[in-house]
Amino acid sequence: xxxxxxxxxxxxxxxxxxxxxxxxxxxxxxxxxxxxxxxxxxxxxxxxxxxxxxxxxxxxxxxxxxxxxxxxxxxxxxxxxxxxxxxxxxxxx
Length: 93
Prior knowledge:
By secondary structure, this protein is an alpha+beta fold. It has one domain. Helices cover about 35% and strands about 30% of the residues. The protein has a four-stranded antiparallel beta sheet with strand order 1-2-3-4. The radius of gyration is 13 Å and the shape is globular. The model has no long low-confidence stretch (mean pLDDT about 85). It comes from Actinoplanes octamycinicus.
């Protein structure tokens, strides 16, 4: 999966951008998870200087959380594997 996302990328930033595009295009949103024991809804992902973030909503509140720090419920939807691929890539870079 990572190889598919980073094909033709020349540096780490281009690889990050490629992974972000794959997550953005393939991750089905909205989906639910929990942060600090509180249910939240992930409505979109974004690319920031800190990396890929999930925009978490709870009522009228929203917060950007790095996808690397986002807990995923078990069982997770199949397309969440793109988040797992990003985590794998980030651990090696």
